[in-house]
């Protein structure tokens, strides 16, 4: 039965991986690893899922574990190479790809990945050797000649690049890519007519590469085909509305044609997209003088001088603007500064060279072909090891695909509470169970089943009415019965659900007085007190009436003192919970959260660690501890914890990992 279960779980995990349910698939692989840690496959598949989520360090570790278990699995070296390349450990990645090729010498995926990695360390000769092997194995792959031409350009072998691009076009003249590549090469070689012809061929074949339109625009400007050049720049902007190069070139052309206002708009757009573009700022400042916007021109020239201290035209520009505004003294001062720089130019040039020239800029050459699209290739690699899926995922779209690209706020996971309602989360492995709570539920002393959660449900109007009715019924029962801690506890939970925190605390006080070892009551009282503190703080912070400012200030001071006292009471209750039940991990977690709000981060980390000791799968504790480590500057520890939280099902962590690594 155990054998069948692990095989079945592994298959379900592979299906989830195939359908891009990466977070979910990790949970299935975790289960297999927990039952049979000596199997290599679940570590490998978990590594693939982590790679898709951008968790490269943890994927590297999983692949290393695979290799320890079975050093004869080429996929493990491939996956680890992919991870190491993504972390910019290029030599190690090449070593892994080479090892994988020993087992699979005919793997095109491996060759292309090693070629790409060699290119990144500028080992162009090695990359060309890999391409030649690729060509022998797959002679009908036309794009290989494009890649070869690119690498030959990097080696400044223009004759070889020309032959490669020509060969590419002989094999596939319908592709815009070959025409684009050869056009760029001709443009570099000053063959303007040939470049223009090839760019036109690329565009006629519906090229979607914005550089083709920008570069043809430049060539048309040189040929004085201004309307066609403007049309090319418009097409480039239509393809990519955030392409600052297209706006810049169009702005220069408009200025040369006397369309100054539209030219200024284009240059403003460039600076909005890239505020560091000095050439655009210089062109904008010169236009502003033409348009008699002297104050903005001076601002732009001064920004240029901040970056380029010895750029003489900026000083002359400020002098000209001041003179036209009638500020002759200031104009004279800046001309003198320019003259001083000119007089000392030999000394200054030895210190730094600063020449800013406003001219049309070419778009970069090489596009990535589908053959060199690394993410796509790795998806195909992952799919090779997976059988056809049996069913579609029943889980939320929010957890599917590249979840690291879905923006998430940097906020701690919330406190855990005892309540009747909880949102289900089938992804996380945090064990929301404790024998004391389970036993109490079996005794059926409450209105409903008690649950441990940090994901509470918002109540509907009908649910709220039912809880008010329950409060009335329990109150009647208390009048009839002798004082009973379970009844007070029951009513406290009902009061908490309808947000009557003060009444809930009063009932919990009575329950604890009647039963001093009532652990769930201490835990609930701490949680409700904490909610009350948060509620009071939020209410005061959101009060904005100016007429009540003095009274509000006094109220804030009083509330802060009370909050300090309440926090002490809350912490005592959590400590009492752990005195009565040392393995109740949720009180350590909640206590750590409060310590974070008090900026006692070291003690908070200690409490998160204690929660993890009790429950090694406590995803939320890893997540919060990771954020705390990052906050105090311990990024390596933080990223390790966040990675573990992702592994345990908190999928939003992958977005944070990507942002913290930037």
Helix and strand arrangement:
Elements: H1 2-18, H2 22-35, H3 41-52, H4 56-69, H5 74-86, H6 90-103, H7 108-120, H8 124-137, H9 143-154, H10 158-171, H11 176-188, H12 192-204, H13 210-222, H14 226-239, H15 244-256, H16 260-273, H17 278-290, H18 294-307, H19 312-324, H20 328-343, H21 345-351, H22 374-384, E1 417-419, H23 435-442, E2 451-453, H24 461-480, H25 485-497, H26 501-514, H27 519-541, H28 549-580, H29 585-597, H30 601-614, H31 619-631, H32 635-647, H33 653-661
Antiparallel strand pairs: 1-2
Helix pairs in contact: 1-2, 1-3, 2-3, 3-4, 3-5, 4-5, 5-6, 6-7, 7-8, 8-9, 9-10, 9-11, 10-11, 11-12, 12-13, 13-14, 13-15, 14-15, 15-16, 16-17, 17-18, 17-19, 18-19, 19-20, 24-25, 25-26, 26-27, 27-28, 28-29, 29-30, 30-31, 31-32, 32-33
Report on the architecture of this protein.
The chain has a domain at 1-105 and 389-405: Tetratricopeptide repeat domain (Serine Threonine Protein Phosphatase 5, Tetratricopeptide repeat), CATH 1.25.40.10. It is built from 33 helices and 2 strands. The chain has helices at 2-18, 22-35, 41-52, 56-69, 74-86, 90-103, 108-120, 124-137, 143-154, 158-171, 176-188, 192-204, 210-222, 226-239, 244-256, 260-273, 278-290, 294-307, 312-324, 328-343, 345-351, 374-384, 435-442, 461-480, 485-497, 501-514, 519-541, 549-580, 585-597, 601-614, 619-631, 635-647, 653-661; strands at residues 417-419, 451-453. Strands 1-2 form a two-stranded antiparallel sheet. Helix 2 (22-35) packs antiparallel against helix 3 and helix 25 packs antiparallel against helix 26. The protein starts with a helix and ends with a helix. Mean pLDDT is 85; it is low at 370-397, 403-408 and 542-548.
């Amino acid at each position: 039965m155990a054998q069948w279960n692990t095989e079945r779980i592994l298959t379900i995990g592979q299906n989830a991986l195939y359908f891009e349910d990466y977070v979910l698939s990790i949970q299935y692989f975790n289960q297999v690893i927990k039952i049979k840690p000596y199997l290599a496959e679940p570590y490998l598949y978990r590594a693939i899922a982590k790679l898709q989520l951008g968790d490269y360090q943890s994927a590297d570790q999983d692949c290393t574990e695979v290799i320890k278990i079975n050093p004869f699995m080429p996929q493990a070296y491939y996956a680890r190479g992919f991870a190491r390349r993504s972390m910019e450990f290029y030599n190690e990645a090449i070593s892994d790809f080479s090892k994988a090729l020993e087992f699979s010498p005919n793997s095109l995926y491996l060759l292309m990945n090693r070629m790409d990695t060699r290119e990144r360390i500028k080992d162009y000769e090695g990359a060309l050797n890999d391409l030649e092997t690729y060509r022998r194995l797959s002679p009908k792959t036309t794009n290989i000649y494009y890649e070869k031409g690119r690498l030959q350009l990097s080696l400044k072998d223009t004759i070889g690049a020309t032959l490669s691009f020509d060969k590419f076009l002989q094999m596939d003249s319908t592709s815009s890519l070959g025409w684009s590549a050869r056009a760029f090469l001709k443009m570099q070689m000053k063959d303007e007519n040939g470049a223009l012809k090839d760019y036109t061929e690329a565009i006629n074949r519906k090229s979607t590469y914005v550089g083709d339109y920008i570069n043809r625009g430049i060539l048309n400007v040189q040929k004085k085909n201004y309307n066609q050049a403007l049309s090319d720049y418009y097409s480039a902007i239509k393809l990519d509305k955030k392409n600052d190069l297209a706006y810049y070139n169009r702005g220069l052309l408009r200025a040369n044609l006397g369309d100054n206002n539209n030219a200024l708009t284009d240059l403003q757009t460039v600076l909005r997209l890239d505020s560091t573009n000095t050439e655009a700022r210089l062109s904008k400042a010169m236009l502003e003088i033409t348009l008699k916007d002297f104050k903005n021109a001076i601002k732009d020239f001064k920004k240029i001088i901040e970056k380029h201290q010895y750029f003489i035209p900026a000083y002359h520009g400020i002098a000209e603007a001041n003179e036209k505004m009638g500020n002759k003294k200031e104009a004279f001062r800046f001309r003198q500064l320019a003259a001083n720089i000119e007089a000392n130019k030999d000394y200054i040039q030895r210190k730094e060279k600063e020449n800013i020239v406003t001219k049309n800029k070419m778009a970069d050459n090489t596009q990535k072909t589908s053959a060199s699209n690394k993410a796509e290739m790795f998806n195909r690699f992952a799919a090779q090891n997976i059988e056809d899926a049996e069913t579609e995922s029943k889980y939320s779209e929010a957890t599917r695909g590249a979840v690291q690209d879905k923006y998430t706020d940097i906020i701690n996971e919330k406190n855990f509470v005892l309540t009747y309602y909880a949102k289900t989360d089938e992804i996380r492995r945090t064990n929301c169970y404790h024998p004391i709570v389970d036993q109490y539920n079996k005794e059926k002393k409450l209105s409903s089943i008690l649950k441990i959660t940090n994901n509470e449900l918002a109540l509907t109007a009908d649910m709220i009415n039912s809880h008010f009715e329950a409060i009335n019924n329990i109150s009647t029962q208390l009048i009839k019965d002798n004082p009973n801690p379970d009844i007070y506890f029951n009513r406290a939970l009902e009061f908490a659900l309808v947000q009557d925190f003060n009444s809930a605390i009063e009932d919990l006080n009575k329950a604890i007085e009647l039963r001093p070892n009532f652990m769930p009551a201490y835990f609930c009282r701490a949680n409700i007190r904490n909610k009350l503190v948060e509620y009071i703080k939020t209410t005061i912070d959101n009060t904005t009436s100016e007429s009540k400012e003095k009274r509000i200030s006094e109220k804030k001071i009083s509330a802060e003192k009370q909050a300090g006292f309440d926090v002490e009471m809350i912490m005592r209750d959590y400590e009492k919970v752990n005195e009565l039940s040392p393995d109740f991990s949720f009180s350590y977690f909640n206590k750590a959260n409060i310590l974070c709000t008090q900026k006692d981060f070291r003690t908070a980390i200690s409490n998160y660690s204690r929660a993890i000791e009790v429950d090694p799968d406590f995803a939320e504790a890893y997540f919060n501890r990771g954020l705390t480590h990052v906050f105090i500057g311990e990024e390596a520890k933080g990223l390790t914890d966040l990675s573990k939280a992702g592994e345990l099902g908190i999928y939003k962590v992958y977005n944070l990992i990507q942002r913290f690594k930037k």
